[in-house]
UniProtKB/TrEMBL annotation:
<dbReference type="InterPro" id="IPR036890">
    <property type="entry name" value="HATPase_C_sf"/>
</dbReference>
<feature type="compositionally biased region" description="Pro residues">
    <location>
        <begin position="21"/>
        <end position="30"/>
    </location>
</feature>
<dbReference type="InterPro" id="IPR050267">
    <property type="entry name" value="Anti-sigma-factor_SerPK"/>
</dbReference>
<keyword id="KW-0418">Kinase</keyword>
<feature type="domain" description="Histidine kinase/HSP90-like ATPase">
    <location>
        <begin position="32"/>
        <end position="149"/>
    </location>
</feature>
<keyword id="KW-0808">Transferase</keyword>
<feature type="region of interest" description="Disordered">
    <location>
        <begin position="1"/>
        <end position="36"/>
    </location>
</feature>
<dbReference type="InterPro" id="IPR003594">
    <property type="entry name" value="HATPase_dom"/>
</dbReference>
<protein>
    <recommendedName>
        <fullName>Histidine kinase/HSP90-like ATPase domain-containing protein</fullName>
    </recommendedName>
</protein>
<dbReference type="GO" id="GO:0004674">
    <property type="term" value="F:protein serine/threonine kinase activity"/>
</dbReference>
<keyword id="KW-0723">Serine/threonine-protein kinase</keyword>
<dbReference type="Pfam" id="PF13581">
    <property type="entry name" value="HATPase_c_2"/>
</dbReference>
Length: 152
């Protein structure tokens, strides 16, 4: 039997007295599945905004990198199978993960050996230049996860 001073197990119980409860998250801000590079860029902007981060250069760098990663998953990786972005390490980094169906790691071609007039082949070098860390992890059922981080 509960004591008289026990708090009810309701969402209102977590709200300090005199303060209204937080409003419900609007449906348009609820996470949506990412299927395109544009949707990934929008997801990053919303995530940083929701975290109270001003965006700026971090957002620009992360959006360029994620554009390359998603485009490569769609073009070379057999399709995008998962996209995740979150704030990690006590709010000090942005973590982005892009999964695809291909087991092969991204191709690293030295930029100085490339013909400047040739299109393509620079995406992974761009991602590596922009991100704080880059990691390629094989997935148990096949495919790979590319995890990149950006310092906030």
């Amino acid at each position: 039997m509960p004591h008289d001073d026990a708090l009810p197990l309701t969402p209102e119980a977590a709200v300090p007295e005199g303060r209204p409860p937080e409003p419900a998250r609007p449906p348009e801000l609820a996470p949506a599945p990412v299927r395109t590079a544009g949707q990934a860029r929008t997801a990053l902007a919303r995530l940083l905004d929701a975290a109270g981060h001003p965006g700026g250069q971090v957002l620009a760098d992360a959006q360029l990198a994620v554009t390359e990663l998603v485009a490569n998953a769609l073009r070379h990786g057999g399709g995008l199978t998962c996209f995740d972005a979150r704030i990690g390490r006590c709010g000090t980094e942005l973590v982005v993960e892009v999964d695809d169906r291909d087991d092969r790691h991204p191709v690293v071609l030295p930029l100085h050996d490339r013909d400047p007039a040739t299109a393509g082949g620079r995406g992974w070098a761009i991602v590596q230049a922009l991100a704080t860390t880059c990691q390629v992890v094989p997935l148990p059922a096949g495919g790979k996860r590319i995890r990149v981080t950006f310092a906030l």
